[in-house]
Amino acid sequence: MTAEAPDPGAVRALLAEVGEDAGELELSPVEGGASRQTFMVAAEGVPRYVLRREPAEGMSFATLELELRAIAAADLAGVTVARTVAAEPAGGRLGPGAGYLMEFVEGTSVAPRVLRRDELAIARERLPGQLASALAQIHSVDPQAVDGLAGGGDPALEACELWERALDEIGEPLPGVEAGLRWLRLNRPPPPERAALVHGDFRLGNFIVDEHGLAAVIDWELCHAGDPAEDVGWLTIRSWRFGNDELPVAGLGELEPFLDAYEAAGGTGPDAERLRWWAAMGNVKWAVICARQAHDHLTGARPSAELASLGRRICEPEWDLLQLLSGD
Amino acid sequence: MAAKLFGDVREWVPRDHRFQVLVLANLCAVIARELRAGAEPTLADVRLFRELLRVPTEPAVPPQDADEVARALAGELAAAIRRGELDDRLAEAIARLREHARRQLEIARPGYADEPPNVPEGRP
């Protein structure tokens, strides 16, 4: 999705506030972001930065301010993140939506490159273990330490209600997704022993990867308090294997060694039923997000061929959801 | 059109725009398959939704009305499922609705439904 770049003067002023004397600025959109807008900020004599901004309209779950608090908490817990250097509230210098500048982290977040580039072969061997450790660190964060984090009482019920509401807002009838949601509502796991900070979008595409492996966990806009199994289930859904269907952990590895590493780093591996439930819910979530993105295109809120194309992909998670629940 | 975009245009557009070209090529391919398939997949959905709603499967729907009727029935079915009216046969509905998803996949992502599912197991 290509967005109109923010005012370079505003970005220069933000940089000046953190002691960077930037001259001529180049702001180039980073393609592939489906919700928030992302720009590379380059200038003579200063390090590169990345600017993230909320679109004026469209879906956004956590506010940008909350996202920043979650990133800071994860950073304290030892998660490798792209640190925030400056932020601007909605209606401020970066436009109608809030925005922030973060460190540029060298590497790639583009999933097919991570999965297939020769120079990342060693990274691919290391990534499952690194992702397991990072996830355990995220889940070690007490959600009460992140002011304003939603959720955490009965995460499974909250997820059912959230995605039912989202479907209603879109108004697109999806009987397959609705049947899956109904099954999930009727077969909910009990709340976890301890609610955790949940990243909410922990999958390939939201990791910056260099030749050594994981360089940063990014895109925290779906963070909330909830069941740690949610992140594990989401990481294993087929849509995030990007064609490497035989490897359930992000198209990179098998589940058992991933759970071993997750538990060794302090996480509690989910049992089979809980994992299946959250993987099924992950497919509901992706189907509804696809529908929402297509809706944003069709209503003119965010015209984009990429968002339109996501409308044709609803059937992928819908199929995976129904397969998971059919059990054959 | 899709082959041209994917095979030729992608090569000479600036690197920053190749992703958009891929998206457009894929959309063109989807639309071409949709045109080739005609109204039959939607009419099959109409029959399926009526069966699940337990309403008469006749009269037949004219092809030109298929989209509108299918959408209305999908809305009725989704609402009935939400209200719990299919709870006593939810397993059957889930199994049957795979037919609907499979038909859509044949247009949007041929071959996707043919792959065996790889369902990860958690801890015992």
Give the key terms.
heterodimer; A: 328 residues; alpha+beta; 5-stranded antiparallel sheet; two-stranded antiparallel sheet; 9 strands; 43% helix; B: 124 residues; mainly alpha; 5 helices; 65% helix; 0% strand
Tally of DSSP helical segments of chain B: 5
- Kindly estimate the percentage of residues of chain A that lie in beta strands according to DSSP: 5-15%
| Beta-strand fraction estimate of chain B | under 5%
| Topology of chain B as a string of helices (H) and strands (E) | HHHHH
Oligomer: heterodimer
Shape type of chain B: extended
Major beta sheet of chain B, specifics? none
Describe the structure.
The complex is a heterodimer of chains A (328) and B (124). By secondary structure, chain A is an alpha+beta fold. Chain A has helices spanning 8-17, 64-76, 111-116, 121-139, 155-170, 175-186, 228-236, 255-264, 272-298, 305-311, 315-326, and strands spanning 25-29, 37-43, 49-53, 84-88, 99-103, 196-198, 207-210, 213-217, 224-226. In chain A, helix 4 (121-139) packs across helix 8 and helix 9 runs antiparallel to helix 11 (315-326). The longest helix of chain A has 27 residues, at 272-298. Chain A starts with 7 loop residues before the first helix and ends with a helix. In chain B, 23% of the residues are buried. Chain B is extended and about 55 Å long. Chain B is an all-alpha fold and 124 residues long. The interface between A and B is large, with 53 and 48 residues.
